[in-house]
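Try this one yourself first.
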């Protein structure tokens, strides 16, 4: 196989560090295993962040997400672990990870975890006429 799953998240320099802007990434093929049954759990990950000095490189993100395919994890734990790893790699001003898990036993689970850099406040929303 030319590529393998990896826990290493690569980054690159933010091209506009003086501006607050939002990067939105949707990962529709996240898979991990149920720690109780060993059956696969599927989710769509929605990553939104305001970068500071670094941005996450997308191929490394793909390989990182792939690395969970054979791991057992509760939805809440894996969502927070992914957020912690992304924050450690990029040190963003703000990051939100929303993990929408597919139905299991008639129940849908969505887990939302956030990080804010100390002292960072979002700009006020713009209201247009």
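Now uncover the answer:
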């Amino acid at each position: 196989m030319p590529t393998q799953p990896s826990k290493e998240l690569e980054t690159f320099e933010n091209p506009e560090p003086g501006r607050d802007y939002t990067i939105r990434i949707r990962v529709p093929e996240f898979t991990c295993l149920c720690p109780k049954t060993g059956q696969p759990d599927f989710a769509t990950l929605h990553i939104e962040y305001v970068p500071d000095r670094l941005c996450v490189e997308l191929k490394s993100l793909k390989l990182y997400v792939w690395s969970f395919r054979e791991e057992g994890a509760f939805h809440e734990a894996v969502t927070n672990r992914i957020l912690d790893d992304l924050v450690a790699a990029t040190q963003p001003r703000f990051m939100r990870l929303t993990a929408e898990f597919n139905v299991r036993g008639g129940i849908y689970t969505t887990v939302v975890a956030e990080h804010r850099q100390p002292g960072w406040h979002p700009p006020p929303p713009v209201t247009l006429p």
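Discussion: The first strand starts at residue 11 and ends at 13. The chain has a mean pLDDT of 95.
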